[in-house]
Specification:
The complex is a heterodimer of chains A (342) and B (313).
Chain A lengths: L6 E12 L2 E13 L4 E5 L6 H8 L8 E9 L2 E2 L5 H7 L4 E4 L3 H4 L6 H12 L4 H14 L5 H4 L9 H13 L5 E5 L7 H18 L2 E6 L2 H4 L5 E6 L2 E7 H6 L4 H8 L58 E2 L10 E2 L12
Parallel strand pairs in A: 3-8, 3-9, 6-7, 7-8
Antiparallel strand pairs in A: 1-2, 1-4, 4-5, 9-10, 10-12, 11-12
Helix pairs in contact in A: 4-5, 5-7, 7-8
Chain B lengths: L1 H28 L4 H6 L5 H11 L5 H13 L13 H36 L4 H15 L2 H15 L15 H35 L2 H8 L4 H29 L3 H6 L5 H10 L3 H29 L6
Helix pairs in contact in B: 1-13, 5-6, 5-8, 5-10, 5-13, 6-8, 7-8, 8-10, 9-10, 10-13, 12-13
The chains are: A alpha/beta (342), B mainly alpha (313).
The structure holds adenosine-5'-triphosphate (ATP) and magnesium ion.
């Protein structure tokens, strides 16, 4: 973790023009991942997780979006990079796996074609060499009889198999960073655990950095090195996974954790869980067009221990006693007493 | 795939059988005596008797139908009341003109609709999009005969580039065939193209918003590959169907444009059959249109299975 980060995001902000006014979807997010490291970005639906990573790759259309801040990847600032240079980063530099494997693959192209096209463009392979490698990749992600599967269309495959294909596509150009955006949310619980395990294994093998995006803290407990908790386009708490799980400091993080019945065994597949289960925290996340003044969480917050909560944004600061170059940090004006966990 | 094909052919045969009953009934649903009506003021007993006997109208209805169907299957559609010539012959004479115009128009329509629809989908609410929308709206609302007259005025009478009317067989003189075809095909194709543009635009817009398009972009593919391979191929799937419907419609003749361009096609022939109450000819034309429709549908379904692998099994 002391290693030089491969991707460092600094004060990223994304505003999207809508008919109702500008939506402030991402409001100053900073994080970094090093090779071999796994960062989990966690938060409820609508907290800006997807937009924050999509905007790094120029996949949020500008306009209506405007993106500011910096994202340093291999010495280049992705935010300022022109489209053509950014295109060359997508795939071999940073690759993505999306949430819904049922819709993320093209229904009219074979699995083989969808695997080879990226390699032809980025690695300069001819069709034969790319096909050869495509079969190896399918084998790598655990798809039986990979050679026959190349000729299959997505509708021939189950959801779990399709997500494996998506992972193979993402890995095909040996990315330095893999971003998995809710890569397991649409899958059965047992398949979820397999996919989580698969990516962790491939990461050990290939040494890439992984950014796991999820609204389910349980999924990442076993695999993440660091966790960043997002709320209303901000990071409200971050730290090493053990620190954050053992001693959550933000009322929102505590709410998220409270919605997990048994910590730990979740990662290997327990009960299925959906955003609705987060109803443990009453209320809804704020509308990005009408963000409340002060801490964005204060309207739902059970603590509100400081009068500034309603008027000022609490900055992210190290928790007392935190050490190291990437300490456990929280965005509150107060320090909560240690949680009393049954 | 073969089973799918056989099933579709089987369905078409059943539909065609139903159509044949309907077509056969035309002559029996007309109130009064069809032959007398057809002859009108030119009535004389000898012609009348000959026509009735030739059409077998004295036989029991079921016998008549079986005979008619049997003859139709062997390509004998009876004799025109009006000209006394075999209906099949009359239709075959007109077929090349109609096929030329219909396919020429569809080619023009696709050449207009695919690029225009795609460009406006790529830049929705841009100047290009508004112009394209306006043009296709205009193409839909302007009557084709008006367009035909203007085209003749400009390109034929004023500029003298192209002939204003008539059809020349492809085998007689390919160059003249093409020169005569251009104006009517462009006029008819513009109208069809206007309709198709809307479909291409909306289905391309839909494909652009799909997850797989985002995946294609996330792979770092060049824009032209994302558009050509991922967006366009998916966008054209529904367009195949609409194109087929347009083609079937064009094959049954575009009467007014045929009249304006003195284009001796099936539309004019069918119109004459109605005007002169030439029932055998009308039956033949309607039956042929039904066959066109079924064949086009069959081809569309097969094409559909080719462009969309989810269909075939
Ligand atoms: N194109 C857009 N135009 C306007 N608002 C948008 C657009 N895309 C996203 N948003 C808004 O941005 C906010 C964050 O969206 P985002 O998809 O990043 O959330 P998320 O954290 O990934 O949630 P989920 O768990 O549902 O995927 C949401 O409130 C959403 O409505
Ligand atoms: Mg998301």
């Amino acid at each position: 973790m002391a290693a030089e980060p491969v991707l460092a995001v600094d004060d990223l902000r994304v505003t999207i023009a809508t008919r109702r006014g500008p939506a402030r979807v991402v409001n100053g997010v900073s994080w970094a991942v090093a090779p071999g490291e796994t960062l989990a970005v966690v938060g409820e639906s609508g907290s800006g997780k997807s937009v924050s990573v999509l905007s790094l790759l120029g996949l949020v259309p500008r306009p209506p979006a405007t993106v500011t801040g910096r994202a340093t990847f291999q010495g280049q600032d992705l935010v300022a990079l022109p489209e053509e240079a950014l295109r060359k980063v997508r795939g071999p530099g940073i690759a993505m796996v999306f949430q819904d494997p049922m819709t993320s693959l093209n229904p009219v192209l074979t699995v083989g074609r969808q695997l080879t096209e990226g390699m032809e463009v980025h690695l300069g392979l001819d069709r034969r060499a790319a096909t050869e490698r495509a079969a190896e990749l399918l084998d790598l992600v655990g798809i039986p009889s990979p050679r026959e599967r190349l000729a299959s269309y997505p509708h021939h495959l189950s959801g779990g198999m399709r997500q494996r294909v998506m992972i193979a596509v993402a890995l095909s150009c040996e990315p330095a960073v893999l971003i998995a955006d809710e890569a397991t949310t649409a899958l059965d619980v047992t398949i979820q655990a397999q996919i989580v395990e698969l990516i962790a294994e491939l990461q050990r093998e290939l040494g890439m950095a992984v950014v796991w995006i999820t609204h389910d803290l349980g999924v990442v407990a076993g695999i993440a090195d660091r966790v960043a908790v997002m709320y209303a386009g901000r990071i409200v708490e971050e730290g090493a996974v053990d620190d954050l799980y053992a001693d959550p400091r933000h009322p929102y993080t505590r709410g998220l954790l409270a919605s997990l019945p048994v910590l730990g065994d979740r990662a290997r597949g327990g009960e299925g869980r959906h955003p609705a289960d987060l109803a443990v925290i009453p209320g809804l996340p704020p509308d990005p067009v009408h963000l409340p003044p002060g801490c964005p969480f204060h309207p739902r917050c059970p603590v509100r221990a400081d009068e500034r909560c309603a008027t000022e944004e609490p900055p992210l600061r190290p928790v007392p006693g935190a050490r190291g170059p990437a300490p456990h940090r929280v965005a509150t004006f107060y320090d909560l007493p240690p949680e009393d966990r049954r | 795939m073969t089973r799918y094909l056989l099933r579709r052919v089987g369905q078409s045969v059943v539909v065609l059988f139903g159509v044949s009953v309907a077509v056969f009934s035309i002559i029996h649903l007309v109130p009064g005596d069809p032959v007398r009506l057809a002859l009108g003021t030119r009535f004389d007993q000898r012609t009348y008797d000959a026509l009735v006997a030739r059409a077998g109208l004295d036989d029991p209805v079921l016998v008549q139908y079986v005979n008619w169907l049997g003859n139709a299957l062997t390509g004998d559609l009876g004799v025109s009341f009006r000209s006394g010539r075999p209906v099949t012959e009359l239709i075959l004479e007109r077929l090349p003109a109609t096929l030329s115009l219909a396919f020429g128009a569809i080619v023009v329509a696709l050449l207009i609709a695919v690029p225009l629809g795609l460009v406006s989908a790529l830049r929705p609410r841009s100047a290009v999009d508004y112009v394209a929308t306006f043009v296709s709206q205009a193409g839909i609302s302007i009557p084709d005969f008006w367009l035909a007259i203007v085209a003749i005025l400009v390109f034929s009478l004023t500029l003298g580039w192209l002939p204003s009317s008539g059809y020349v067989g492809l085998t007689e003189d390919p160059v003249e065939w093409a020169r005569h075809l251009v104006l009517p095909a462009v006029v008819v194709g513009t109208v069809s193209g206007a309709v198709l543009t809307r479909f291409v635009r909306s289905s391309a817009l839909e494909a652009l918003g799909e997850d797989y398009t985002r995946t294609a972009r996330a792979k770092g593919l060049p824009r032209r590959v994302v558009i050509g391979r991922h967006v366009l191929r998916n966008a054209l799937v529904p367009v195949v169907t609409v194109t087929g419907i347009q083609l079937a419609y064009l094959l049954s003749g575009v009467v007014i444009v045929e009249v304006v361009f003195a284009w001796q096609g099936l539309g004019q022939l069918a119109l004459q059959a109605v005007e002169t109450r030439d029932y055998p000819l009308l039956q033949g034309a309607v039956l042929l249109f039904a066959v066109f429709f079924l064949v086009v549908n069959l081809v569309v379904d097969l094409l559909y299975a080719v462009v969309d692998p989810r269909i075939s099994r």
